[in-house]
């Protein structure tokens, strides 16, 4: 049976995630190919990728080294179990991740996605305290407007209302810090906002309310992406780290978006010079090509489990595809591509140009805020009264028709282009978006 790669004959069977299915299937938008900075649509147009797919194709699309590594590995060793068995590629990838990780991060536990990385980190946090003789530490602290994937643990510590409201009572023993979006004080921020470090002090309130002896971990995104690019105020992450250390609480950085060069450093922990106890990763780990995630931990977290008889399993957790050979090969080739092309350094070098281009939209129609950090940017729009999200979604559709891909969340346009983007492509992306905004109702 031949597969028509441009025009599927029936759209009904695929229930699409995070999509207005009925609207899409009346007028589908189909990508059929990709190369470097562009997608090709089913009608032959070249669309400039302003979002690195879904924050994940940091090295661009269909990069030769990654493609070749996948092909070679699939022909050599397609699958090997990670339970009580191993294969060299997974160990090599782990070593290379640790080589670029912050000093103090020493171990890698593989998952298949950011959502699973979060679930793993939350379980590790609770199990860690139990292993240390502090079994009362089971409470998890997230943050309002946080996004930590879509599994039950992730949406419990997450703080995006629509991701939570339809799924019952979620996990018990979860609380939330306030988010750091202060538009009245920090509007038009270039990089870290000036105001809001004191919001980290709300953790002291939660400690007083629940007792430090009940709290296992705090999880935050260093830069909150999926909720519309919310930036950490100056001093905020440092203060959060100090409070968690003071009370023996683990700090987890969700680096699924910020990891692998998005801020111009390998990880946000290095960019902000704040070392957490664990980091959740995915997306840029394999350039989005094959599902893979990983939790990175300190030796202290790992070593807490290395007790008891050597023949006994230390941690009763893992996935069928943890350290999958093909995904591991893709990860190694991705890291090599980042290094050989200097993409992390390139992101840091081009970030000021990106910043100024973004902020040129400040006076555009309906724009009420612009903010940025690294190669991330947000343009917030004044919502239509009584019709939230409609204005930004209209901008998304108009942008696609004009051959640029943007993302929207609420009435916020979010952009995170591949790290290989050129100045001319930034001009095209932002210039086209300016045209879209000028005509937006």
From TrEMBL:
Q: Write out the entry's keywords from A to Z.
A: Aminotransferase, Pyridoxal phosphate, Transferase
The UniProt GO MF terms for this protein read: adenosylmethionine-8-amino-7-oxononanoate transaminase activity; pyridoxal phosphate binding
State if Transcription regulation is listed as a keyword.
no
Query: Where does the source fall among the domains of life?
Result: Bacteria
Member of which family? Belongs to the class-III pyridoxal-phosphate-dependent aminotransferase family.
Q: What is this protein called?
A: Aspartate aminotransferase family protein
Report the PANTHER family cross-referenced here: ADENOSYLMETHIONINE-8-AMINO-7-OXONONANOATE AMINOTRANSFERASE, BETA-ALANINE--PYRUVATE AMINOTRANSFERASE
Query: What cofactor(s) does the depicted protein rely on?
Result: pyridoxal 5'-phosphate
GO BP terms: namely: biotin biosynthetic process
């Amino acid at each position: 049976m031949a597969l028509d790669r441009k025009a599927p004959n029936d759209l009904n069977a695929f229930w699409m995630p995070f999509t207005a299915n009925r609207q899409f299937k009346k007028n589908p938008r189909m990508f059929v190919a990709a190369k470097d900075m562009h997608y090709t649509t089913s009608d032959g147009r070249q669309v400039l990728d302003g979002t690195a797919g879904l924050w994940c194709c940091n090295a661009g699309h269909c990069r030769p080294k990654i493609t070749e590594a996948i092909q070679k590995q699939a022909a050599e060793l397609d699958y090997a179990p990670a339970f009580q068995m191993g294969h060299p590629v997974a160990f090599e990838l782990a070593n290379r991740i640790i080589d670029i990780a912050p000093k103090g991060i020493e171990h890698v536990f593989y998952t298949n996605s950011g959502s699973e990385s979060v679930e793993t980190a939350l379980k590790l946090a609770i199990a860690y305290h139990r292993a240390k003789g502090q079994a009362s530490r089971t409470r998890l602290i997230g943050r309002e407007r946080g996004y930590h994937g879509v599994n039950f643990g992730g949406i419990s510590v997450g703080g995006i209302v629509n991701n939570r409201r339809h799924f019952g009572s979620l996990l018990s023993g979860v609380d939330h810090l306030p988010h750091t979006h202060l538009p009245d004080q920090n509007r038009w921020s270039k990089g870290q906002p000036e105001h809001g470090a004191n919001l980290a002090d709300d953790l002291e309130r939660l400690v007083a309310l629940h007792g430090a002896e009940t709290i296992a971990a705090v999880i935050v995104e260093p830069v909150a992406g999926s909720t519309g690019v919310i930036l950490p105020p100056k001093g905020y992450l440092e203060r959060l780290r100090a409070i968690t250390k003071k009370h023996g609480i683990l700090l987890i950085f969700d680096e699924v978006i910020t990891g692998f060069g998005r801020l111009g450093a390998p990880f946000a922990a290095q960019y902000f010079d704040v070392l957490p106890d664990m980091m959740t990763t995915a997306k840029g780990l394999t350039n989005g090509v094959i599902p893979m995630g990983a939790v990175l931990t300190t030796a202290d977290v790992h070593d807490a489990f290395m007790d008891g008889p050597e023949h006994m399993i230390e941690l009763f957790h893992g996935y069928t595809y943890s350290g999958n050979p093909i995904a591991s090969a893709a990860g190694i080739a991705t890291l090599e591509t980042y290094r050989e092309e200097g993409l992390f350094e390139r992101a840091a070098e081009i970030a000021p140009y990106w910043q100024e281009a973004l902020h040129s939209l400040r006076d555009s129609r309906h724009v009420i805020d612009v903010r940025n950090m690294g190669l991330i940017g947000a343009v917030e729009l004044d919502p239509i009264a009584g019709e939230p999200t409609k204005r930004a979604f209209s901008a998304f559709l108009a942008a696609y028709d004009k051959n640029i891909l943007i993302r929207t969340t609420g009435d916020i346009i979010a952009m995170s282009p591949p790290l290989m983007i050129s100045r001319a492509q930034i001009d095209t992306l932002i210039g086209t978006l300016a045209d879209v905004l000028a005509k937006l109702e």
